[in-house]
Amino acid sequence: MMSGMGDWAKKAEDLAKENPDKADEILERGEQAASEKTGGKYDEQIGKGVDAAQRRYGGGKGEGEDQPDQQQG
Fold first, then answer.
1. What is the mean pLDDT of residues 5-26?
2. pTM of the model
3. Residue by residue, what is the 3-state secondary structure of 1-35?
């Protein structure tokens, strides 16, 4: 039973590595939905989970690139 979940998780990680932009989009939608459902109460924890997932497949790089533009403008 546990190996089935491990196989599924490995497949999901492989797909995310192959399509990091799509994986980022899915995670961001999930993050927004979770935030709405919890009334923002767990935004910090949800964000940390999203960041950890993105680190596993190399996603989320666009977020850091946006910040310098905001500081200049």
1. 93
2. 0.71
3. CHHHHHHHHHHHHHHHHHCHHHHHHHHHHHHHHHH
